[in-house]
Write a structure and sequence with these properties.
With 353 residues, the chain is α/β, with parallel strands linked by helices. The protein has twelve helices and eight strands. The chain folds into two domains: 272 residues, Rossmann fold (3-Layer(aba) Sandwich); 74 residues, no CATH class. GO terms for molecular function: monoacylglycerol lipase activity; short-chain carboxylesterase activity.
Length: 353
């Protein structure tokens, strides 16, 4: 199988990294993704895993944290059923995607992988995503790095072992923004992985506002509008309910709800602030950035090259996989390639914890 040059380490990273990580991607062929023939299109590779993928059974224990601003978030901790886990075992933190949760197919798959390795695992829910509506007149957003910082630092205070983190789609963007902003201060975690993050939010927003992409947009808006109207019942006068109902694209919805609620002038200001592509060169912690070139949520032209990113960043850009898809095997398929790829990367950096 031919080696993809985008998957090769920058030599300066290998030279400067601890010896334990020198061969993180060898043999690289182990991780080259190939889509099954029965999933021939980007949309099939995206939709089938999300709707029909066989999610492993994992158990969670919920914990509620009060936030410094008078709100709350819910964290679902992996509840190991077959063994006791040492307090110093690695902790895997997963930030979910837009309107996702600990029950999302990728979350269950990765928590099952953590359990199999004897790791701790936790899914911190963004505000309003754990079931009950949060209290304040705000939700969560693509640039919510301050929330990630508070969560990760509190986890660092509590956990005795190394911490690694991953983020999926929106959660991946939040994690990358935090890594870009914090530089060496992000070394409270040993390594990170961002999966299908919208590295150029303008390009991604445009991609799902036309053609078949509107299928995804309508699905998101159905959930987001319901929450937005419930938030109006909590806090009357926040925004115009008719404008919420009239929104046909995420750009229109963000202009009415997300941007003004979170301190942005408008959608364009919000999306520009949330875009991470130009800032990936500031990352100082080992990070895997995984994006399929056929992701319906982000055009291939928006993907960075290795020359644009920090030597600490490993780009993995397979030709196929869709958006958070990466299904493998004969029908009905498996959804565990993604978790194996992510953990195969992260586990090499545990000595940094």
């Amino acid at each position: 199988m031919k080696r993809d040059p985008l998957l090769q380490h920058d030599s300066s990273f290998v030279d400067s990294a601890p010896a334990v990580v020198a061969n993180v991607l060898d043999p690289i062929e182990e991780w080259l993704y190939s889509a099954p023939r029965w999933l021939p299109t980007a949309h099939a590779q995206t939709i089938v895993p999300a709707l029909f993928g066989r999610k492993p059974a994992v158990s969670y224990r919920r914990e509620r944290w009060d936030t410094p601003d008078g709100d709350f978030i819910d964290l679902d901790w992996l509840a190991h059923t077959s063994r006791d886990v040492a307090s110093t075992a690695p902790l895997f933190v997963l930030f979910h995607g837009l309107e996702g949760s600990s029950d999302s197919h990728y979350a269950r798959s990765m928590m099952a992988a953590a359990e199999a390795r004897g790791w701790h695992g936790v899914v911190p829910h963004f505000r309003s995503c754990s079931g009950p509506l949060n209290l304040l007149p705000r939700f969560y957003h693509l640039a919510d790095s301050a929330e990630a910082d508070w969560i990760l630092r509190r986890l660092r205070e509590r956990h005795a072992g190394p911490i690694v983190a991953a983020g999926v789609s929106l959660g991946g963007n939040v994690l990358l923004r935090w890594l870009c902003e914090r530089g060496t201060d992000a070394s409270i975690i040993s390594a990170a992985a961002a999966i299908s993050a919208p590295l150029d939010v303008h390009a991604g927003g445009h991609a799902i506002s036309q053609g078949f992409g509107m299928v995804y947009t309508r699905s998101f808006l159905k959930s987001l509008k319901k929450k937005a109207l419930a938030k109006l019942a909590q806090h009357p006068g926040l925004y115009d309910p008719n404008a919420v109902l009239a929104a046909r694209t995420l750009h229109e919805f963000d202009n009415v709800v997300t941007a003004p609620l979170h301190g942005f002038r408008d959608t364009d200001h919000y999306w520009s602030s949330a875009t991470t592509r130009a800032h990936l060169k500031h990352i100082e912690v080992p990070a895997l950035v995984l994006n399929a070139r056929n992701d319906p949520f982000l055009p291939e032209s928006a993907l960075p090259s290795q020359a644009e990113v920090s030597a600490c960043v490993t780009l993995d850009q397979p030709n196929h996989g869709g958006h958070v898809g990466f299904m493998t095997g004969p029908f009905p398929g498996r959804i565990d390639w993604l978790s194996q790829r992510v953990f195969g990367y992260l586990e090499h950096f545990l000595s940094r914890g």
